[in-house]
Design brief:
The protein is mainly β and 275 residues long. It folds into two domains: 121 residues, Immunoglobulin-like (Sandwich), CATH 2.60.40; 131 residues, Immunoglobulins (Immunoglobulin-like, Sandwich). The protein contains one helix and 18 strands. The chain is globular, with a radius of gyration of 19 Å.
Length: 275
């Protein structure tokens, strides 16, 4: 689950990362891939969760396989980081959990055409993520999501099921009205894999109007490589269902993100694709 964080806190964290987290501000605007440490928080059981994201300055997706060009220190080198990088600034892409009392350092190294870039994760107090509610008297319940691993064949649509439990709403169903957007969306994207994937709605699913503007009425263009499903009211558990078609056999990981208001939840789906 990804909690809603104050935008001012995140902005300050990103600025700090750009100047001291291994990604220098003067090179951040050049085309390339830049890892970013997005901060950390303490969980109720005392363990800690460290959030990582990245900036892809290319207009399209970029692949950096696991290995010396995409690795973590200390071991293990594979900490569930992506190998497929979507364009733009992607925040809170994956997390690493450490036990209570841990006080080490996590270093994510990426190498692209701008050279080697590092994001340093630690318990530095400057990186603490603080939750700031818009209304102190209002408790926002984040969505929850679970997804199952699946298997299929190259070139054939594979059903993806993301069961979503949304934030309760007070909206009533109006008999005879068409589907309406609830503010809950589920976004699918390729996270790891040897080939390309295309997404489409489940056949027969009712279309839902997508919001075309964001804050301030500005248009929100779709992100290349991301397939977003807007859930209709009343919300069903399978509102995030989709189909994926792969062009090559192998082991894939897909990432699904459910978002409602400022709250997010994510799930990773492993897909085994045969001939």
């Amino acid at each position: 689950m990804v909690r809603g964080f104050a935008s001012t806190v995140v902005a300050a964290l990103v600025a700090h990362v750009l100047t001291s987290g291994g990604v220098e501000a003067q090179t951040f605007r050049q085309p390339g891939i830049y890892p970013v440490f997005d901060g950390w928080e303490t969980l109720p059981d005392g363990s800690m969760e460290f959030y990582f994201g990245y900036m892809n300055r290319h207009p399209n997706q970029v692949t950096i396989p696991l290995g010396p060009d995409n690795t973590f220190e200390p071991a293990p080198a594979d900490q569930n980081q992506p190998t497929n990088f979507l364009p733009g600034r992607q925040e809170h892409v994956f997390t690493i959990r450490k036990p209570k009392g841990w006080d080490g350092k996590l270093v994510w190294t990426l190498k692209s055409e701008v050279g080697v870039q590092k994001a340093n994760g630690s318990t530095n107090q400057l990186y603490i993520l603080e939750v700031e509610e818009e209304d102190p008297g209002e408790h926002i319940v984040p969505p929850a999501m679970t997804a199952r691993d699946v298997a299929g064949k190259v070139g054939e649509p594979i059903n993806l099921t993301a069961e979503v439990k949304a934030t309760p709403t007070k909206e009533r169903v109006i008999e005879g009205s068409g589907p309406r957007n609830t503010g809950l969306s589920v976004a699918w994207s390729l996270y790891r894999g040897p080939g390309a994937v295309s997404f489409r709605p489940v056949p027969g699913a009712a279309p839902v109007p997508r919001p075309t503007t964001g804050r301030g009425g500005r248009p929100v263009p779709p992100t290349p490589g991301v397939f977003t499903i807007e859930c209709a009211f009343p919300i069903t558990a399978a509102c995030g269902a989709a189909q994926a078609t792969f062009n090559a056999p192998g082991e894939y990981v897909l990432r699904a993100v459910a978002q409602q208001q400022r709250e997010r939840a994510r799930a990773f789906v492993r897909v085994r694709v045969g001939q």
